[in-house]
Write a structure and sequence with these properties.
Elements (H helix, E strand, L loop, with lengths): L6 H25 L3 H4 L4 E7 L4 E4 L9 H12 L9 E4 L12 E10 L2 E11 L28 E5 L2 E2 L1 H9 L4 H29 L1 H24 L4 E9 L9 E10 L2 E5 L15 H14 L15 E4 L18 H18 L14 E8 L2 E6 L30 H7 L2 E8 L15 E7 L3 E7 L20 E6 L2 E4 L8 E4 L3 E5 L14 H9 L5 H8 L3 E2 L4 E2 L1 H14 L3
Parallel strand pairs: 10-11
Antiparallel strand pairs: 1-2, 1-5, 3-4, 3-6, 4-5, 6-7, 8-9, 9-10, 12-13, 12-16, 14-15, 15-20, 16-19, 17-18, 17-20, 21-22
Helix pairs in contact: 1-5, 1-6, 4-5, 5-6, 7-8
Length: about 575
Amino acid sequence: MRNDIDPILLEVLKSGFDTVADEMALILMRTAHSPIVRDSMDFSTAICDEAGQTLAQGVTTPMHLGSFYDAMQFLIERYRGDVQPGDVFVGNDPYAAAGQHLPDIYIVKPIFHDARIVGWATTVAHHADVGGIVPGSNALGAVEIYQEGIRLPFLKLVEAGRDVKPLWELIALNVRVPDMVTGDLRAQIAACVAGERGYADLFRRHGPAVMLRYIDELHDYAEQLARAEISEIPDGEYRFTDHIDGLGEDPEPVIFQVCVTVAGDTISADWTGSSPQVKGGINTPLPFTKAGVYTALRSVMASDVPNCHGFTRPITVRAPAGTVVNSVHPAPTGARGITGYRVIDCMFGALAQAVPDRVAADGSGGSTLPTFGGYQSGKPFVFCETVMGTWGGTASHDGPDGVPHMGANQSNVPIEMIEANYPLRIQRYGLVQDSAGPGKYRGGLALARDYELLADDGYFGLRSDKRAFPPHGLAGGHDGRPCDSRLETAAGTRMLPVLVTEAITLRKGDVFRHVMSSGGGYGDPLERDPALVLRDVVQEKLSIAAAFHDYGVVVDPAGPSVDEVATTVARGSSRRAGTR
């Protein structure tokens, strides 16, 4: 740290930036119109410095960490010399704005002090619909981006404080639920206004000379902490291969290969060997892959490294162009979220070889994203949510149940909100007994959620994963349970593929039944404390039969209590036989 830097003031300003970004997140959540933003919280907020480098990110989606920088470089270069107070920019295109996928729309507002740009208030939110061939715009069956919805380079949505009305009209005309989309855009603008106010206030309070010096120092400080953390990881190359099951009824596995190289205080992630981009909406642009790498690495660092751009300086991400992790035009990207999750999972698989105590066994693989669309009382409706599930076990505790993936601090939409606003009934929602991957520390349980359509008919789409390649265990832990998706209609029950590429039409009374994959176990199941096994039986997370089969623990139902003598015998027999 430089001699002219006061460490206390640096911490105060770091917390100030965090507070501004968090306030933006709360305002966006509270003013949004769609359940995917308001309830699932599929959005992010950030404050960036004048160069478009992230200073702080709000408390929402970690997978967006680092993605703001690339988008901001596009915007700054395009509008250099043509930015004025009161401007608000909009963009979403992966190839013309360094976006992520078309439903994720960026709203950005410049922040001025004494007629100089000193920062940017930035937001990105997943919109309920942006047009395209299917409601919700997550077209797994799309073969090119032109089929996925309205494409926006960075444009001025508001110029010098005045709405650019033709652009608002163009967006509204191209989406199925214009009131919801424009309402969420207004919510993003409100969040940016709050960010502008809070950030500008820091400049007024401390002065531009101090602020700019401390902003530079914050990036340097984050870099120093990141390098110190990386230095604690043993040098070497750590390789891992992971998969997405594949698209449609005849899936071909999509391969993710990473080589994580640690050399002193630097680290690189090379994705050479990953599958070529596919004709389906799971491709991801490079900024999103980088964000996944940053998320995985940030999560294994023990110190409180600031979530600013400086943290990324010791990290290099390489991915061959034209692959599923670095798509090129015109590859579709509408359902790229599943790929981002798998990037993180693959990173964890590699890092488990270097720092096994800091990495959990594999979890549910991200969110399941069901989408329902159609008409109710003559008006269009689109409902989609990011259903989150569970983590794998760790070296010190069981995998938690009913939690989001590391990459997305998101939430399942409350049943009451769904049933009050959409022609849907949730028939079942809960955890599934006996589903956790066994281990000394078991994985989290699978989550089940069933939807019944109440409208006369409607569209249905599905993005899920981890059936052919269920969540893996670590250190002798067993795999988690694979996912299961079924559609019950008058014609019978049909098993659905994990990534549905066709447009399915539902009729009134049809039911989509889904069980997410569960978490993998960590460590030998025969080393699990019998008291923990008994606790799971009492809480009905584990049956008496599974306690014996998975852990060699004999539970007397009369207590219930553990029969210690019978358990010792059973575990000894299992060890000699090489079974559970």
